[in-house]
Amino acid sequence: MSSVQPGLGEIIRRRRELAEVPIRRFASMVGISGPYLSQIERGLRAPSDRVLQAIAGSLRTTADALRSEAGPEWDPPPAVLAAIAADPRLSARQRQALTEVYLAFVATADVDRPRG
Fold first, then answer.
1. 11: how many CB neighbours lie within 10 A of its CB?
2. What is the helix (H) or strand (E) element at residue 31, kind and residue range?
3. Cα dihedral sign for 55, 12, 94, 103?
4. Which CATH class, in words, describes the domain spanning 1-77?
5. Whose C-alpha in 31, 63, 81, 110 is 20 to 30 A from the C-alpha of 45?
């Protein structure tokens, strides 16, 4: 059985929870909004270098250590996911639904794409 490498957002969430810091308080410590931190933790948005450094500092580690733990396959989310997450006209539920549909279509496209 192979293990799945957790994404950067999941690593940040795990470390924040291990430190027993509520999301709103942690976001305040980092200098970002709670919803933005939530999007980072769910993998919907990639933190800028400045934000990642602030997160790492609050977790008493380095941005490089977080990136390393996320592994070599860590990539910022596709532009589509970033656009969905940033659109103020959408409710949280609409963002979640659009994200799920997009990810399902992409997963299907990857399976259906001929290898060659």
1. 22
2. none
3. positive
4. mainly alpha
5. 110
- CB 66, CB 58: distance < 8 Å: no
Residue 34: how many CB atoms within 10 A of its CB?
Answer: 14
Q: Which residue has the tokens 């919803």?
A: 35
How confident is the model over 48-96, as pLDDT tens digits?
Answer: 889 999 999 999 999 888 888 887 655 666 788 788 888 889 888 888 8
- Lowest pLDDT segment from 27-31, 86-90, 102-106, 110-114: 110-114
The C-alpha atoms of residue 41 and residue 14 are separated, in whole angstroms, by: 9
Question: Where do the structural domains in the chain lie, given as residue ranges?
Answer: 1-77, 78-116
